[in-house]
Design goal:
This protein has 128 residues and is mostly beta strands. It has one helix and nine strands, in the order E-E-E-E-E-E-E-E-E-H.
Length: 128
């Protein structure tokens, strides 16, 4: 049986928006709400170039990545054709207007993926 972690109220997530859930390890999780008050959770990292999906525009059951406008399905985390790739999804439970995520998934799911780097890429330099 799963242990569920209380995240927020559904109304704490903007309609057609998201909120981020920080984790001790790994990339944050983005929790989305559409205009029908459905709630979804994906790793906050586009499968294309690592863009922050939490900053994208939600429409229907999809989100548009803010970097290159890839459409990512909120139900499965997968990019829509012709694009390819998936963002890991997380189990969500909503009870009495309260959003919960699976505690085991938060602690272990997709923690090995690197955090996206903001700004110019830095080249590693060899130490002398």
């Amino acid at each position: 049986m799963s242990e569920w972690k209380k995240i927020c109220l559904v109304t704490d997530i903007p309609v057609l928006g998201s909120r981020c859930v920080s984790r001790a390890k790994g990339v944050d999780v983005a929790v989305f709400r559409n205009d029908e008050d459905q709630v979804f959770a994906l790793l906050d990292r586009c499968p294309h170039k690592g863009g922050p999906l939490s900053q994208g525009i939600v429409f229907g059951t999809s989100v548009a990545c803010p970097l290159h406008n890839w459409t990512i399905g909120l139900t499965d985390g997968c990019a829509r054709a012709p694009d390819e790739g998936c963002a890991p999804k997380f189990a969500v439970k909503v009870e009495a207007g309260v959003v919960h995520l699976d505690a085991d998934e938060l602690a272990s799911h997709a923690i090995d993926l690197p955090r996206p780097l903001a700004g110019p890429l830095h080249k590693e330099t060899a130490s002398a």
